[in-house]
Amino acid sequence: MQPMTIRRATAQDAAHLSSMVQGSGAYRGMYAPMVAGYQVTPEYIRRHEVFAAVDGARLLGFYALILHPAELDLAFVADEAQGVGIGRLLLDHMLDQARAAGLTEVRVVSHPPAERFYRRMGAERVGTAPPAPPKVTWERPELRFALT
Q1: What's residue 3's pLDDT?
Q2: Is 85 left (phi over 0), alpha (psi -120 to 50) or beta?
Q3: Is 45 exposed, middle or buried (0-12, 13-18, 19+ CB in 10 A)?
Q4: CA distances (Å), 135 to each of 12, 37, 77, in order?
Q5: Structural domain of 17
Q6: pLDDT digit of tens for each residue in the chain (148 aa)?
Q7: Which parts pass through the membrane (predicted)?
Q8: Contact assessment for residue 75 and residue 92, using Cβ atoms and an 8 Å cutoff
Q9: Looking at residue 47, what is its pLDDT?
Q10: Global pTM value
Q11: Which residues pair with 40 in a beta bridge?
């Protein structure tokens, strides 16, 4: 494995990022409709703070930070790359980017199974987001990273 780096995502990454979202093992079963057909478009990458974790030419994870209002919109690690610290590396990078942008907090509406990860990373639960049919038929934890 080559050294892990984080770089700004490019429009050329869009198809690979979309595949990572759609193929995520965390979204099987009842969660599958949420990511079915989901597209990370080149325009989305241009408009938001989208960064990718790469190992040489391999894209292993990414996140998307929306600055206004401040929200972590997407965070994914490829199934085959989970459990080795890539998620932590991406979240640390996101928090640094948020601080550099002058944000005082970042909201996360979490995929329910990911809540534990975000809490381990320092987020606090502040509420629950209601279902958003037809794709999201369950409540989701709403969390906040306070940036001090």
Answers
A1: 84
A2: left
A3: buried
A4: 27, 11, 22
A5: 4-146
A6: 578 999 999 999 999 999 999 999 999 999 999 999 999 999 999 999 999 999 988 999 999 999 999 999 999 999 999 999 999 999 999 999 999 999 999 999 999 999 999 999 999 999 999 999 999 999 999 999 999 7
A7: none
A8: no
A9: 97
A10: 0.95
A11: none
DSSP for 23-86 reads T-GGG-GGGHHHHTT----HHHHHHSEEEEEEETTEEEEEEEEETTTTEEEEEEE-GGGTTSSH
Structure tokens at 140: 């989701």
Number of structural domains in the chain: 1
How far is CA 17 from its chain centroid? 11
Q: The dihedral of CA 102, 124, 26, 5: what is its sign?
A: positive
CATH code of the domain in which 128 resides: 3.40.630.30
Token digits of residue 100: 């550099």
d(CA 148, CA 144): 12
Q: Distance between the two ends of the chain, CA-based, in angstroms?
A: 35
